[in-house]
Amino acid sequence: MKNIEFAPKVQVKNKKILSLVYTPGVAESCLKIQDDLEKVFELTNRSNQVAVLSYNLEESTKRAVFLKETRTTDAIPLVIKKCSKEEFQMVEEAIMPNFMGVDTTLTKGLPFDNDEFIPTCSKGCVLPDFIKIENMQPIELRSAFGGVLETRVVESSKQIKPVAIISDGSAVLGLGNIGSWAGLPVMEGKAVLFKELGEVNALPLCLATQDINKIKKIAYLLEDSFSGINLEDIKAPECFNIETFLIQNLKIPVFHDDQHGAAIVVLAGLYNALRLVKKRIENVKIAISGAGAAGQATCRLLLKAGAKNIIMTDVYGIVYKGRKENDKSLDDISKITNLDNIKGGLKEALQGADVFIGLSAGNILREDMVKDMAEDSIVFALANPTPEIMPNLAKRAGVRVYASGRSDFPNQLNNSLVFPGLFKGIIDSGANKITDEIKIMTAKTLAGMVYDDELDEDYIIPDAIDYRVAKNISASIINHVRNFTTEHRK
Q1: Sequence-distant (≥ 6) Cβ neighbours of residue 398 within 8 angstroms
Q2: Is 195 a known active-site residue?
Q3: Of 9, 32, 39, 190, which one is the catalytic site residue?
Q4: Confidence at 485, pLDDT banded by 50, 70, 90
Q5: pLDDT the model gives residue 125
């Protein structure tokens, strides 16, 4: 049968292209669109993308294939559950940041090959041979290609359902609440990495609403269109509410990458950094800067993995029991961290700390703070694009192992090492939940790819575009799920 799959317009064959397609280069395109919404048509594939919405996915797919083959339109098949007219309209309006229009031909009882269509504009990508993508600026590249993602028609034995990358644009890539349209380049870049690194089809789906009840409803109504949902760039604490609801109410796997992707890659890096300095996770003091979605999820996963002494800080200082600035999620975190109820700021949190994990803001970690840390200290400065402290300053202050989220520094701890292989393994195994056991196993698999004779201060984690990573992670998840299923059948 004919199907629609997603195809990157740019092959991510080295770190330079990765930095153009995703972080940090994509931020420039986001800001351009924030300043001028019309730029979304130039810098993303929206000008040639249409959603085909009906009550039957096979029919939507036939319609999408017809539009692609006859109009070169990147038509995306979607299926909606039976709902009221008002709910249908809500979905139509909410998904518009991604599309030139929503094709409802099939809901009108018309045949899939009806000539009614929404005008689109396919951008040709013919570049002179002498121009190398690596030498292009981020804006130049996206403008030349009209975004970085398109579709193609393929023959397959079963229905292709993409992972939906759902965002409301409220917490985009360190840029803050820039909105759905401006966040679209990030989601396109993420979809490219899904496909390039994990062979997973992924659909950017930026929603024109930040109402958490609408987001939950839209995901529920469109559930049968997807193989899984990757929540992205939704601010805390709303993201916790949305994720919890979807995990409890959907039959497909749901994963908030800002939380759990960050947590898994941090744990993997920490396993190897601790191996290098000959310390054990249960014995070290860990200070986490940033108590948002990523910080809280990282804290919880580290505790699950055996950590016992964690202090968290945010813009108000150390998180402690009874602090007036705590919301419910921080109240919960305060019960399992900072067991001595220490008060103060980041400087106080770092006294004698073995590990600093930064998931916050650039340039907040000073050299004098680093000097107060324990011997053979570990610093993961993951704010992007500007880390909490630059590597030369950290090393000068005595840091033994330094990592960041940037591709131009050693030890890049980036979520792209996690989500392609994790979703590949989850989908291929047939699992519908991503458990803490799977997260910890994924971190161990990732860490285990750095062998003893390779491990050093500048190499604690595989390269961001090491194509072995996704294959190894997916294989380990498939084996885990099979073994778990076998054990429970006995």
Answers
A1: 370, 371, 373, 375, 377
A2: no
A3: 190
A4: low
A5: 62
Q: What pLDDT score was predicted for residue 124? A: 66
How many other C-beta atoms can be found within 10 angstroms of the C-beta atom of residue 313?
A: 25
Residue with tokens 């919405």, as numbered in its chain: 53
Mean per-residue pLDDT of the chain:
94
Mean pLDDT of 176-199: 96
3-state secondary structure the chain: CEEEEEEECCCCCCHHHHHHHCCCCHHHHHHHHHHCHHHHHHHCCHHHEEEEEECCHHHHHHHHHHHHHHHCCEEEEEECCCCCHHHHHHHHHHCHHHCCEEECHHHHCCCCCCCCCCCCCCCCCCCCCCCCHHHCCHHHHHHHHCCCEEEEEEECCCCCCCEEEEECCCCCCCCCCCCHHHHHHHHHHHHHHHHHHHCCCEEEEECCCCCHHHHHHHHHHCHHHCCEEEECCCCCCHHHHHHHHHHHHCCCCEEEHHHHHHHHHHHHHHHHHHHHHCCCCCCCEEEEECCCHHHHHHHHHHHHCCCCEEEEEECCEECCCCCCCCCHHHHHHHCCCCCCCCCCCHHHHCCCCCEEEECCCCCCCCHHHHHCCCCCCEEEECCCCCCCCCHHHHHHCCCCEEEECCCCCCCECCHHHCHHHHHHHHHHHCCCCCCHHHHHHHHHHHHCCCCCCCCECCECCCCCCCCHHHHHHHHHHHHHHHHHHHHHHC
Bridge partners of 75, per DSSP, are 50
- Using CB atoms within 10 A of its CB, is residue 120 exposed (0-12), middle (13-18) or buried (19+)? buried
The mean per-residue pLDDT over the stretch 363-381 comes to 97
pLDDT score for 133: 86
Residue type, 33: I
Number of C-alpha atoms within 13 angstroms, CB side, residue 137? 5
pLDDT band, residue 68 (cuts 50/70/90): very high
What sign does the dihedral 233-234-237-242 (CA atoms) show?
A: negative
Q: Is 444 exposed, middle or buried (0-12, 13-18, 19+ CB in 10 A)?
A: middle
**pTM of the predicted model over 0.85:** yes
Considering only CA atoms, which of 271, 94, 59 is closest in space to residue 169? 94
User: For residue 128, what pLDDT band results from cuts at 50, 70 and 90?
Assistant: low
Q: Measure the CA–CA gap between 377 and 397, rounded to whole angstroms.
A: 10
